[in-house]
Recover the amino acids of this structure.
């Protein structure tokens, strides 16, 4: 079993560039017709997230908890501090549409 979060974005191209900073690449793209909103799947190491321009998808801002091998690299790239939590070292970044992404590396 797996789950795929769907995040609402206003501009897929801008969102793709932002998510690329976290190592995600486009897996697929769907559009019903030429001017309809776009729906895109992104993937990194088997982790999938869907980004949707459809106004009826994913109301409000989402929150995704993302496990990575090196949270310090991500935090340095985004210029945010890393917090030491009992379960992991983590940081939080926000995409251009207000979706929050908590990025973490488990303690050894």
């Amino acid at each position: 079993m797996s789950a795929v979060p769907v995040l609402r974005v206003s501009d897929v191209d801008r969102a793709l560039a932002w998510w690329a900073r976290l190592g995600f690449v486009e897996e697929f793209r769907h559009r019903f017709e030429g001017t309809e909103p776009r729906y895109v799947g992104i993937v990194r190491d088997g982790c999938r997230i869907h980004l949707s321009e459809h106004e009826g998808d994913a109301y409000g801002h989402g929150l995704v908890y993302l496990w990575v091998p090196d949270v310090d690299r991500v935090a340095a790239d985004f210029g945010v501090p890393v917090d030491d939590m009992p379960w992991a070292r983590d940081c939080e970044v926000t995409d251009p549409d207000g979706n929050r992404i908590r990025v973490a590396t488990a303690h050894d």
In short: The domain at 6-106 is CATH 3.10.180.10 (2,3-Dihydroxybiphenyl 1,2-Dioxygenase; domain 1). The chain is about 15% helix and 40% strand.
